[in-house]
Amino acid sequence: MARGRTRGPSPLPERAARLWRTLGAAFVLLVFVPPLLLLVSGSLTEPGLPPSPTPQLVPEPLSTTGYERALDLGGLLRASLNSVLVAVVAVPLSVLVAALAGFALARIAPRTTAVVVAASLVALMVPATALLVPRFAIFRLLGLTDTLVPLIAPAMLGTSPLYVLVYYLAFRALPADLYDACLVEDLSPLRTWWRFALPLVRPVTAGLTALTFVLTWSNFLDPLVYVYDRDLFTLPLALRSLSLLDPTNFPVFLAGAVIATVPALVVFALAQRRFLHHDDRSED
User: Fold this and answer.
1) Among 213, 258, 246, which residue's Cα sits nearest to residue 76?
2) Which of 45, 64, 219, 275 is paired with 204 by a 20 to 30 Å CA distance?
3) Pick from 273, 254, 253: which is nearest to 265 by CA?
4) Average of per-residue pLDDT across 33-58
């Protein structure tokens, strides 16, 4: 009589997941790497020369003068410090508030949750430009215009209802037994959130952190409305001043764009590493 054989899980889903990840990475490289290469090569062109009729991957001659002039003319160093200050305060605060609000939504009564989720969806449909006038009136009444406070204040509300809804779905997807076990251990909701729920949604935190950083780092409209002092300019406003240079100095603007792009790429690389690390642990 033949012995029965125990079969493990089929490797097909795992292979399909790896194939989709490989195709996704190839698509991202194909779409984003060529423009980035042209951006870097353009920033290494000697300023003052007539623009080339065709893009050059390796300009002749290579020059870093564009970076030196970008730092001098555009005040990119001070603008970078202002942008870093805003991001360092706004990004963690926004993620923290969104995570707390999303966890609260996942644990309160279903009827209350339905009302809050519906209100959040309605808020998402309101254009951001429609809120500029009332927000400007409030900040002006409080005497906070021409400061960096209006750029950080939205983080106290989680920046966007979308972040709260994403965390709500993530916490709701956790097993109910986890919350029941925490209740048996007489853990407070805050300790349950910090010690058990939040570590289990680290990929969500990594993704929202990267998204919040990029949106905060590239925010142009809010600084344009609230900031007037050149010493308080953020990077998008500084780049706007460089964009007004004549075409022969276009490498200066491209050099500034490279300086502004590098931090966003680093953050996305770190977030992607978190995703891959999480996938590897899941497969193990």
Assistant:
1) 258
2) 219
3) 273
4) 77
Distance CA 196, CA 6 (A): 34
- Tell me how far CA of residue 137 lies from CA of 144, 150, 191, 272, in angstroms: 10, 11, 39, 40
Residue spans of alpha helices (H) in the chain:
12-43, 65-73, 76-107, 110-124, 132-141, 149-152, 161-172, 176-184, 189-192, 198-200, 202-217, 221-226, 235-242, 250-283
Backbone angles phi, psi at 186, to 5 degrees: 60, 40
Rounded Cα gap, residues 244 and 242, in angstroms: 5
Inform me whether the pLDDT recorded for 1 exceeds 50. no
Contact 159, 86 (CB under 8 A): no
Q: Is 200 helix (H, G, I), strand (E, B) or coil?
A: helix
- Any residues with CB less than 8 A from the CB of 116 and at least 6 apart, and which? 105
Cα–Cα–Cα angle for 129, 131, 132, rounded to 5 degrees: 70
- 165 CB-near residues (< 8 Å, 6+ apart): 102, 117, 120, 121
Residue type, 203: P
Overall pTM surpassing 0.85 (yes/no): no
